[in-house]
Amino acid sequence: MSGTSSSGAIMGPTGISIQRESLSSASAVKLIQSLNAELSRTYPEDGATHFRLESEEVEAGQGAFLVAYDGAEPVACGAVRRIDPGTAEIKRMYVRPGFRGLGLGRKMLEALEAEARRLAVTRIVLETGVRQIEALGLYSQTGFARIPAFGEYLNSPLSICMGKDL
Asked: Residue 84: which residues within 8 A CB-CB, separation 6 or more?
């Protein structure tokens, strides 16, 4: 059964906890390095990846960076950042390969949506790549629909942008 631990972490049915972290924490750095390496292998084309996320964009009141743990082991991450008064963007969603297929991506997405609601936005958007079939499936299953490219993705032919009203 899901619930909240005494530390405020969200507990999943398998003992996975999700907590807010600094973008510069050791766990965040480790997960982001793994994500960047995977994206670089998947999209080797010059300019095909969009890695930008700044620490101030995920500070309280602006967004959040979340890390999922299996015990003490960081296994997934994701961020949400406000991009205008009514809209937040999901960034840096990642689940380590050995932990995929267990519902962690969905749990992380739910936690990020909860953070977006705390920011009082009414819409969330995201960008993913055309080769990320599992991510596209997850987002479609959770109510996201394709939208026109926005922001830094406007001229990115390998990007798929999606949005969802909260």
From this structure: none
